Amino acid sequence: MQHFLNILDSPVTLVQQVIERALRLRTRPEPTLLSGKTLLCIFEKPSLRTRVSFEQAMRKLGGHVMSMHNNEVGIGGRESPEDISRVVSSMVDCVMARVVFHETLERMAAVSTVPVINGLSDLAHPAQALADVLTIIDAFSPGDPDGIRGRTIAFVGDGNNVARSLCAISGKLGASFLICSPPGYELPEDFLASVRRQAPGVAIRACEDPVEAVLHADVIYCDTFISMGQEDERAERLNAFSHYQVNAELVSQAPKHAVVLHCLPAHRGEEITDEVLDGPRSRVFQQARNRMDAQMGLLAVLLGPK
Fold this sequence. Notes:
The chain is an alpha/beta fold. 42% of the residues lie in helices and 14% in strands.
């Protein structure tokens, strides 16, 4: 049994298998692969892409799926994460949970008898990172599971859960990663050091200048400056990130072939402009579509015949 809680702690072989399987399932569907299996999705935080992609992925593989909101489950209120996990893992074959705190997932996984998948936590968003890799492969080396290797990914914005997972998966799969953030919002240096240890020879860097970040980038990635739960920091964050918007002027500094990604939802006019999000370099909505393929690959590897 293998859990999937964050990229940094996942074996590189598992990540590679998921990417390979996702690419294969696109062209060679297996509509009965997970017949008789059931996935339970628990949502402590709101969701659009995560819910639709996991539910549809499970159905496309022939399995069953049920989703529950936290007002039904009561994580940490009605019941502890451990008790919830003990109960549901005795009835279903896999649990995907989208939670506020990463510790909740760790507590669930510690007692679960079935795989637990992180659908988002404050620490990581590994399911999103899988779709990001598929989108980069689509842009530069369609169909090649090793197609991200050697590319340069520039993340412009907050050192958040999405940035952590993208940084970790870039290092594991051989892509250079550069995060560009204002002071106080960087990825922690100890985290970057952990990625470097796992990816010797791969450039994992940080900077403060957005132009420096995109100058040699194949991929320009951004995310909201204000994540769920940070609404009280809105004015402070918008001020801190005022020079970090991905707009036409910034994108023009990147190589002509560079593409733009965003994990959505986007706050148009804040971290990214309409002109870029809807422009010819954007792969954002293909990236969202790729969430389903990524989830199919993940579920196939975790739950399919070994």
